[in-house]
Structures are given as C-alpha cells and as structure tokens.
Specification:
By secondary structure, the protein is mainly α. The protein has 2 domains: about 15-220, Clc chloride channel (Orthogonal Bundle), CATH 1.10.3080.10; about 235-420, Clc chloride channel (Orthogonal Bundle). About 65% of the residues lie in helices and about 0% in strands. Helix 7 (about 160-180) runs parallel beside helix 9. The longest helix has about 30 residues, at about 25-55. It is globular, with a radius of gyration of 22 Å.
Length: about 475
C-alpha cells in the first residue's frame, strides 16, 4: 500500500476527496444532476398543467382550494377518470416494462442498478397525471424514477461496474427528489442513508453534487422557497416533554403505517383484467369521500401546511389521521404508481397535531403547529429508517424550524429506536422480496477484493459494493 494515499480516517480511502473516481465518473455525476433538475422541473410543470385542467383553479389558488371550489359531482367524476387513466396506464406499463427494477429501491437493492429508461419515464409520467387528478399518493416517485433511469442508462453506456451503477442510480433518484422539493441536502441524504444504507465520504460526495446541481437547475422554473411556510416557533420544556412521549408513539404509528403499505402492495392486481378495472372502485370511493373530506385528494402537501399552522380542528385531524393512510393504501393497492414520502409526512403531522391538541389541554402554552412538526419528523424518520435524512428534510421543507431542533431530535431518536426494536423495515424495503437480495459477492465483477469504506484501499483499488449498502 502506498503511504502517500493512506489515511487513518476510515471514510477517506483512495485519493482523498476524489475517492479514487476518475474524471469520467464525475462527468456522469454532472450530467445526472443536470438531467434530474430538468426532468424534475418538467414533471412539476406537467403536474401543474394536469391540476389546472382537472380542477377549477383561479389565480393564487393552491390544490386544496381548487378542489374545495369544485362541486361534489366534479370530485367524483375526476376521480373516476383518474381510475380509468390508472387502469389503462398500469396495463400499458406492464407490457412496456424492460430490463431492471420497476422502482429505484428494487433496482438498487435487488438488482444491479438497472432501470429501463422508457418504461421508467412512462411510469413517472403516469404517477404525476393521477396525482394531479387527485390520487392520494406522493409525487416524488416520478422525479426519482427519471433521475435514476437516466443514471442507469449513462452507466450502462459508460460500462461502469454494478456497484458504481447502483451508487449513481441512487444519486440520480435523490437528485430528482431534491429538485422538486428544493431540498439539496435532504435529497443527498435520502440517496445515501435511505437508498444506500450507509454514510461515507466516497458516497456522500457524488450524492451532494448531483442533488446540488439538480436543485439549482430546477430553480429556473420552480420557486426558490420552502415548501411549507411555518412561523418561527420557540422551544420550551413543554415541547421537549412532548417529544419524549411522541417519539415512541411515532415509532408505533410508523410500524402500523408500513404494515398497511405492505398489505396494499401485496394486494396489487396481477392479471391484465384486474389491472384495468381494480382502480375504478377505489378511486370512486375516494371521490365520494372527498365530498366531505377534500383534504384526502392529492399527496397531502396542503394538508400539512394547514396542520403546521394549526388550521385544522381536532375532529378533522382525527378523521384525516385515519382516512388519509387508508386512501393512500387503497390507491397503491389498486395498482396506481406513486410515492410515499409526502403521504408519510402527512400522516405523521396529522398525528402530531392530534396529540398536540391533547397535550395543550394538559399543559398549555406552546403552539399546536409545533407539535405537528415534531410528530411529522418522528413518523417520517421511523417509516423511512433514515433519521438523519428525515431531520434534514423537515428542516429544509419548512424553514425557521431549527429552534425546535432538540425536541425534533428527541422524537426522531425515540421513534427510530422503537421501530428498530420492533424489527421494522422502511416503507421502501418492506415491499421488496428480501429473499431476492443480491449480496456483495453475488456479482462476478464485484468480489470482496473490491475494497470498501472500512479502511483505506490500495492505490488504484476501486471502492467495492459493500460501500453502497447492497
């Protein structure tokens, strides 16, 4: 081993900051970041166009206001139309699916990082269309698929080994997420902590670069502003005590949510006929529920905003805390494609707001919205099994929340510990077939001699697949 490149710091192998990657690798990083930013911005423009076509928007409206302005019959008809689109689209996607995983997590964990470019983009576009029409699922799946699929295509053309392809696919997915939510650090942490399952310098640097580039590119079209407008909440012993109790409760709530997601995933239609018709009754039921509860439609962004600013009554919080997870699970179980990030945060925020109402009766003095924020972070961290990513995402999504850092961290730690003690998997891994996981030694090109992050590899030794958490 050359002493010139040796470092006693375990996460600084190879040639220090470049971690042994060549110029061509960093060229791919830049290209992936650029594409993820452009794709994310384009998909959000498509989402906006679908929403304005489906719902009666006027200037200054957000999605929920437009839905509330619609008539009962329009809500039912639009959701029925969304069911038709989801059914036909799901049938087409089944025939289009090419080589590789259908989801980013599937490609990274169960495969060798391959995502079929065309089918992945088509799946992303379908999810954006049905979300814009009111499906109760997340919008982040589309930019994740776009960034990951583009990374997969570039890596194949460049002839990169499987472990580098997995790394860059995860980076592309995180960059797409960063671009649409304006969370560059959160997107990078999502890639390395949630998708790759480890934090080390050789992984963090490409993830940070792709997310930073994608976010900056998306600023050309998307607003440079936090997703949620939250007042500057102060911190007190009341919130710290609440966090100590809310953390474990959030872990239990996350466990129930993940198991509901798994149940919905296993109930997805397999036959062509069922794929075509399964979304219709689910979306019809959602449209009927939306007559009384318009907050059930969409990914939950506007509902989070209302909960974080204490604009939802205790009765509505309780109803939505039950109905929103069921609506999301129903949409997923019908076969509609979509994400889980915002629905998970919505569920946590609703529970936090509900518990916060009860807490203020016992110990008044702190804003109800602060409790909603603490609960949202706790459930998100436990459900994703990514405590660092969850904390950073919440801080980036809602600026001026750093004053609540101590109670947020307490709740996140409590929720994560409880969920881990229960053996909970994340909302992304729990839906996959664990028996099909490819272990580091399975790929002929990625043997144990490929190195890792546990020590400094040889001068020209590549970083092995163990570094990407596969």
């Amino acid at each position: 081993m050359s002493s010139r490149y040796f470092s006693p710091q375990p996460n600084v192998p190879g040639r220090g900051i470049v971690a042994g990657y060549g110029l061509s690798f960093w060229g791919l990083v830049v290209a992936i970041g650029l594409f993820a930013g452009v794709a994310g911005a384009a998909l959000m423009e498509l989402l906006r166009a679908v929403e304005h076509l489906a719902w009666p928007y006027v200037a200054g409206d957000d999605f929920l206001q437009a839905v509330e302005r619609s008539s009962s019959s329009q809500r039912v008809l639009v959701l029925l139309a969304a069911g038709v689109v989801a059914g036909i689209g799901g049938l087409v996607l089944k025939r289009l699916r090419g080589i590789g995983g259908g989801e980013v997590s599937e490609a990274v964990w169960l495969g060798d990082g391959r995502l079929a470019f065309g089918p992945s983009l088509a799946r992303g576009v379908l999810s954006i269309v049905v979300v814009g029409m009111g499906a109760s699922i997340g919008r982040e799946a589309a930019p994740q698929l776009a960034g990951g699929a583009f990374a997969s295509r570039l890596c194949e053309r460049a002839g990169l080994p499987a472990w580098q392809r997995r790394l860059l696919v995860a980076c592309g997915a995180g960059a797409g997420m960063a671009a649409v939510y304006n969370i560059p650090l959160g997107g990078a942490l999502f890639a390395v902590e949630v998708l790759l399952g480890t934090l080390s310098l050789p992984l963090v640097l490409p993830a940070l670069a792709t997310s930073l580039i994608a976010t900056a590119v998306a600023w050309v079209v998307l607003p440079i502003a936090p997703t949620y407008r939250v007042p500057l909440y102060g911190v007190s012993v009341r919130q710290i005590a609440f966090a100590l109790l809310a953390g474990p409760l959030g872990g239990l709530a996350a466990a129930a949510w993940v198991r509901l997601v798994v149940f919905a995933h296993e109930a997805r239609p397999e036959s062509a006929l069922r794929r075509l018709f399964a979304p219709l009754p689910v979306f019809l039921a959602l449209g009927l529920l939306a007559i009384a509860f318009p907050q059930l439609l969409g990914n939950g962004k506007d509902t989070i905003q209302l909960a974080l600013t204490a604009q939802l009554g205790v009765g509505l919080l309780a109803a939505l805390a039950v109905l929103k997870p069921l609506a999301t699970a129903g949409c997923l179980g019908s076969g509609a494609p979509g994400g889980l990030f915002t629905p998970t945060l919505t569920y946590g925020v609703l529970l936090g707001g509900l518990f916060g109402h009860a807490w203020t009766v016992l110990w008044p003095g702190s804003p109800d919205g602060s409790y909603a924020l603490i609960g949202g972070a706790a459930v998100l961290a436990a459900a994703m099994q990514g405590p660092l990513a969850a904390v950073v995402m919440v801080l980036e999504l809602a600026h001026f929340t750093d004053t609540l850092m101590v109670p947020i961290l307490l709740a996140v730690v409590g929720a994560t510990v409880v969920s881990r003690r229960m053996g909970l998997q994340s909302i992304y891994s729990a839906r996959l077939d664990a028996g099909a996981v490819i272990h580091p030694g399975d790929d002929p090109g990625d043997g144990p001699g490929a190195g890792g992050v546990s020590g400094a590899p040889m001068e020209d030794e590549p970083l092995g697949p163990a570094a990407v958490g596969v």
